[in-house]
């Protein structure tokens, strides 16, 4: 009995020592997309804030782009489970489970969930050449001309790809638009501005300045209710208001560690994350991006994991209906 107590005390001491030693080297936030995109920006702002809440932390951001985000995610899943390599990813964490026939990891099994960061609304956009100025006009125009128009997105599994799929599925178009995949949000937006493509649905972090500058037309937002407090988007209706019952899509971001990361380290990371989400400067920067910082139970590992499980089911239904899969 004495030996068992000694072993238990030794294990507890070892975990405590591990937590006290953390971090023992730079912490890397792996972003599974190229630098300069919306997720990269969120990760860099979070890294800057979390440095304040983890003593002696040096946090760097590494971009590991490719294969719809799965290359970066797989890299973190294979990393040493010591809390020094973390994944910052968006809704793709849930979407890839239905989109890819084979994944090099299991979203709900191969990661420790640290917590959710934010919700980012989406906007439905059209090029300025479209003969429509309101959502009603836009939908009527699409129903008449859908087979002749192009829908841009930033690559398979991207936020803009998922939004476009969900919207077409909800509207039940007789003739779907031709989808054109780009290697990133920037090139897709450039062609929408130039009129080479007709329609796009993307995050407010990427669209607000283009709408404000009059370079594209906005028709609706994808939140349950209008963004009444948003300085640019407050006058645009929600798709639910426009008759798409139950349509709600935000591009959330979360943080993940490799499976097996010690509980004390995960607690240190979650504590720092929660403090960051309450940090006035971080909230202000997220507001400027049009992002909504999470304040509910999804900040916790358990709450975020349950939310992702629900999202996997929801998104798989849409992806299966569209029949658009990746190898």
Automatic annotation (TrEMBL):
The keyword Signal applies. Keywords: Signal. This is Tripartite tricarboxylate transporter substrate binding protein BugD. The keyword Signal applies. InterPro entries: BUG, Bug_dom1. Residues 1-19 form the signal peptide. Belongs to the UPF0065 (bug) family. Coiled coil: none annotated. It comes from the Bacteria.
């Amino acid at each position: 009995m004495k030996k068992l107590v000694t072993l238990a005390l030794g294990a507890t001491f070892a975990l405590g020592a591990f937590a006290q030693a953390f971090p023992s080297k730079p912490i890397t936030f792996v972003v599974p997309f190229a630098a300069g995109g919306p997720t990269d920006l969120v990760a860099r702002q979070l890294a800057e804030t979390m440095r304040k809440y983890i003593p002696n932390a040096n946090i760097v951001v590494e971009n590991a782009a490719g294969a719809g985000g799965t290359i970066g995610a797989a890299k973190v899943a294979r990393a040493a489970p010591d809390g020094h390599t973390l994944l910052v990813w968006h809704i793709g964490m849930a979407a890839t489970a239905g989109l890819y026939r084979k994944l090099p990891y299991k979203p709900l099994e191969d990661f420790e969930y640290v917590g959710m960061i934010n919700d980012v609304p989406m906007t439905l956009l059209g090029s300025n050449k479209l003969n429509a100025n309101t959502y009603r006009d836009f939908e009527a125009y699409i129903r008449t001309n859908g087979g002749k128009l192009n829908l841009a997105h930033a690559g398979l599994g991207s936020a803009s790809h998922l939004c476009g799929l969900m919207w077409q599925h909800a509207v039940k178009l007789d003739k779907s638009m031709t989808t054109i995949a780009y290697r990133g949000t920037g090139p897709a937006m450039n062609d929408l501005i130039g009129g080479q493509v007709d329609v796009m649905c993307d995050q407010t972090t990427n669209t607000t300045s283009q709408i404000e500058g009059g370079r594209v037309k906005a028709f609706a937002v994808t939140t349950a209710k209008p963004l009444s407090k948003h300085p640019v988007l407050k006058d645009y209706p929600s798709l639910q208001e426009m008759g798409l019952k139950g349509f709600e899509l935000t591009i959330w971001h979360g943080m993940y560690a490799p499976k097996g990361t010690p509980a004390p380290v995960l607690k240190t990371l979650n504590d720092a994350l929660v403090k960051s989400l309450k940090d006035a400067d971080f909230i202000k920067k997220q507001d400027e991006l049009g992002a909504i910082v999470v304040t509910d139970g999804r900040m916790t590992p358990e709450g975020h994991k349950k939310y992702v499980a629900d999202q996997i089911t929801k998104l798989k239904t849409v992806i299966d209906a569209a029949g658009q899969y990746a190898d």
